Amino acid sequence: MADTQRPLSPHIQVYRWQVQMVSSILHRATGIALAIGTVLVVWGILALASGEAAFVQFRTCIGSPLGLILLLGWSWALSYHLCNGIRHLVQDTGAGYAIPQFVRSSWLSVIGSVVLTVVIWAFVLIGGAA
């Protein structure tokens, strides 16, 4: 086989970044973030079940600036993974594979997730749950 001095398989450095590529990477990354962030949810449930002292400690940690950033990131990851998952379900039916439709649906997943996250946090903050 001739030595061509090129990668054997196309790699991320070969391609120009496009929204479709980013949406695929984000879908995987948000799946990982959701798995890791679920530890916070389990901690909150266990603290709630353990009594008032444990829950106050949990609320203190999660109410800190770092805790709020983690919750905001986790809620966006959940929103994005949901929107992009719905997009994938639609594509599983065979629809939306034309390049313009694919690009449009990728952007709709990103925009929809941001809107959904804002709505969730508006509901939480206005409802007094924070």
Automatic annotation (TrEMBL):
Record-linked InterPro entries: SQR/QFR_C/D, Succ_DH_cyt_bsu_CS, Succ_DH_cytb556, SuccDH_FuR_B_TM-su
Coiled-coil boundaries: none
Spans traversing the lipid bilayer: 25-49, 61-82, 107-129
Membrane topology of this protein: Multi-pass membrane protein
UniProt entry tagged with the keyword Transmembrane: yes
UniProt cofactor(s): heme
Localization (cell): Membrane
UniProt GO cellular component terms: membrane
Binding site residues for heme: H81
Matches recorded under Pfam families: Sdh_cyt
Keywords: Heme, Iron, Membrane, Metal-binding, Transmembrane, Transmembrane helix
Complex formation: Part of an enzyme complex containing four subunits: a flavoprotein, an iron-sulfur protein, plus two membrane-anchoring proteins, SdhC and SdhD. The complex can form homotrimers.
General function of this protein: Membrane-anchoring subunit of succinate dehydrogenase (SDH).
NCBIfam families reported for this sequence: succ_dehyd_cytB (TIGR02970)
Protein name as catalogued: Succinate dehydrogenase cytochrome b556 subunit
Native organism: Rhodanobacter thiooxydans
